[in-house]
Amino acid sequence: MKTIAGLLYSNDHEWIKVEDGKAYIGITDYAQHALGEIVYVELPDVDSEFKAGDVFGVTESVKAASDSYLPVSGKVLEVNEELSDSPQLINEDPYGSWMVLIELSDETELEQLMNERQYQEFCGKEE
């Protein structure tokens, strides 16, 4: 399982990269591995607003469909349109294949997320 230092991680296996009050969000290497070959990604509309814990999209694989949960509250500024045509990019590069870019509503919610070491320990307990 690959992780990246400097990212934040959720219990639902999403990663977050924060830059200037905005956050790129995608699913982790652990999540894409558990799903298997990803064949479809459903993403929200730009300008949609979500609270932390809300479902913002669906990732479907040959094995199952899985909801994607927004780990923090915010407004969708951009979606990764490339994933609509090439959802397998998540399998190939989960940390380079962000799903949504949001404007953070409450940066204090970031304190509830895990750092790389904590996430690795969390995943170790799930296996």
Question: What do you see in this structure?
Answer:
The protein is α+β, with helices and mostly antiparallel strands. It has one domain: RNA polymerase II/Efflux pump adaptor protein, barrel-sandwich hybrid domain (OB fold (Dihydrolipoamide Acetyltransferase, E2P), Beta Barrel). It is 20% helix and 35% strand. It has 4 helices and 9 strands. The chain has helices at residues 29-35, 82-85, 89-92, 116-126, and strands at residues 8-9, 14-19, 22-27, 38-42, 49-50, 55-61, 65-69, 74-79, 100-104. The protein has a 6-stranded antiparallel β-sheet with strand order 1-2-3-9-8-5. The protein is globular. The termini are close together. The model has no long low-confidence stretch (mean pLDDT 96).
Q: In whole angstroms, how far apart are the ends? A: 11 Å
H/E topology pattern: EEEHEEEEEHHEH
Number of helices: 4
How is the biggest beta sheet arranged? 6 strands, antiparallel
The name of the CATH superfamily reads: RNA polymerase II/Efflux pump adaptor protein, barrel-sandwich hybrid domain
